[in-house]
Each structure stands twice: as structure tokens, then as C-alpha cells.
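Objective 1b. Sequence-to-structure analysis of 18 kDa Sin3-associated polypeptide.
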Amino acid sequence: MAAVELVIEEKKDDAVDRQKVCPFLLRVFVSSTGYHHKASDFNKGNTPQNELQIYTWRDATLHELTQLVKEVNPEARRKGTKFSFAFVYPDIRQPIYRLKEVGITTTGVKGPDDLKTLGSLRYNIGDYMDISITPPENWSSGRKGYSNNYSNHRSRPY
């Protein structure tokens, strides 16, 4: 009797048929300082300088976006480089922008945020993405003033 192999595929709730669904433009602003841009950098029609324009889908993962950024930013390819992701969106009550941090990935290391998708993070088409890149020597626990703790390293102190 022949062996029967059972294969179960996990279907993502927000999976998109990329052959049939048109991608949208994701405007990404990259900071290599280890800090996110200030939300006020986006006010009054302004945007920061380092812009990448990525055509993608709602099922794109943070890991996938990390790979795309590394293609155009050779310094970010080093193992241990951290990518901190944030959405920048307009406040519906005031004429200002808000910044919401949504996850971290690390080059060469699997992490809990790698498989988070834009859809699962409730990304709204038209919002911006801000990515803060931190090289490994700037966040290692051996250096004073830096922390490996996600909550202490996410955004610029004001």
C-alpha cells in the first residue's frame, strides 16, 4: 500500500492574490540615526528627505519590507542591524500627524514581529511608514546609554 502524505497549508486571513490584486504605493521614510523621525516632520505637507517608494500589498510582512530596504541600503545588511517600524498618519481631530510604532525586525535573527503583515497591523493605504535603522554596535548591551529593551529604544526622546 502506498503512503499518503497530508499537506496542510496555513492560509493567512489577509492573504492577497498578488497576480490579480494591484499593489499600492507605500511611502517609506528611513532614518539611520537609530531614532524615528518626529511626527512634526510630516506636518504642513512636508516629509523627511530619505524616501523610498515601495509598491506592495496588505499581506506584505515586516520581514519582507526589511529585505526591500536592505536592497537599497548596504549598511543595513550587517547581521544584528535593527529595523524599527512605525506608521505615520494624520490625526482626525487636529491638523497634525501621529506616529505609532508597530514592530521591530533584526537582520539575521528571527523575531516575533517578522511575520506581522501591514493588514494585521491595520495599515491604512495613504499613511506613511517610518523606519529607524540601528546598526548592531549602537544597541549592544555593552555600550552605556543603549538598551536592548524594545520599549526603551523605540523613539527619539523629546
